[in-house]
């Protein structure tokens, strides 16, 4: 199918920005949002972009590794990382754990802790820790992503903002040489930024493969990513 001039320009904007909203596109091209949605649907059918709620983004240049594969990928390394992290977390600590198989490994290593208050947008983390009645597990609201049982979206961020925790523990899709953190799904970026904002300390848990991974987002997209910087120290309340 040949693209019309508007669709070609729309596709160019997606490639440049990584994600664009339907409302912004409608305003830019002076057409209705229904027209933009039709354009997005046609481009998505050709795998030229990916539909998202309220907008469009880039398709995966490589598919994110299937969840079951990621669980066993570098599992021994993740277990060592998790054991080290768990050894640094005392009982009676409040935490936020986000999406990822390494954060799930941390959850397993924390299972026998006592008095933890854990907020998570990862249903797998909740299932792992829920078996210990000495800990309190709080699952955030939002849209559940079926591929990995992660919870994302605006409702997720609003829920997390209700809490201020001692430690936020996050995983990422990859780390750039300059320290920029990237995700396969732009919605994870916003949730992770919210977790950082609600945590007195933030710990990044990744194995060595994250330094070589290449998420779908292009360089321009990573303006939406979280540049790595030392987390400021917060006085414990």
Word description of this protein:
- By secondary structure, the chain is α/β, with parallel strands linked by helices.
- Helix content is 37%, strand content 18%.
- It contains 9 helices and 12 strands.
- A hairpin with a 5-residue loop joins β10 and β11.
- It is elongated and about 60 Å long.
In brief:
The chain is 37% helix and 18% strand. Helix 6 links the parallel strand 4 and strand 5.
Strand content: 15-25%
Strand order in the largest sheet? 6-5-4-9-12
Strand elements, count: 12
Largest sheet: 5 strands, parallel
Mean pLDDT over the residues: 82
Q: Tell me the Rg in angstroms.
A: 19 Å
Structure annotation, total helices: 9
Please bin the fraction of helical residues: 25-40%
Spans of at least 5 consecutive residues whose pLDDT stays below 50 are 214-237
Structural class: alpha/beta
Q: Could you state the order of secondary-structure elements as H and E?
A: HEHHEEHHEHEHEEEHEEEHE
End-to-end gap: 60 Å
Shape: elongated
């Amino acid at each position: 199918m040949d693209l019309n001039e508007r669709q070609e320009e729309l596709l160019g904007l997606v490639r440049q920005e990584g994600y664009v909203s339907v409302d912004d596109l409608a305003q830019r091209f002076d057409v209705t949002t229904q027209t933009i949605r039709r354009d997005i649907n046609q481009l998505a059918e050709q795998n030229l972009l990916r539909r998202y709620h309220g907008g469009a983004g880039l398709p995966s240049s490589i598919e994110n590794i299937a969840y079951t594969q990621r669980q066993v990928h570098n599992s021994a390394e993740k277990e060592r990382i998790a054991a080290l992290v768990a050894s640094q977390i005392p009982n009676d600590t409040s935490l936020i754990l986000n999406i990822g198989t390494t954060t799930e490994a941390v959850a397993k290593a924390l299972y026998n802790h006592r008095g933890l208050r854990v907020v998570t947008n990862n249903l797998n983390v909740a299932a792992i820790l829920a078996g210990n009645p000495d800990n309190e597990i709080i699952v955030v609201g939002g849209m559940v992503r079926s591929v990995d049982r992660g919870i994302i979206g605006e409702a997720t961020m609003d829920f997390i903002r209700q809490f201020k925790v001692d430690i936020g523990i996050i995983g990422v899709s990859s780390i750039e040489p300059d320290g920029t953190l990237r995700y396969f799904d732009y919605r994870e970026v916003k949730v992770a930024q919210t977790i950082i904002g609600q945590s007195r300390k933030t710990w990044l848990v990744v194995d060595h493969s994250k330094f070589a991974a290449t998420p779908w987002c292009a360089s321009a997209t990573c303006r939406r990513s979280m540049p790595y910087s030392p987390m400021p120290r917060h006085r414990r309340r």
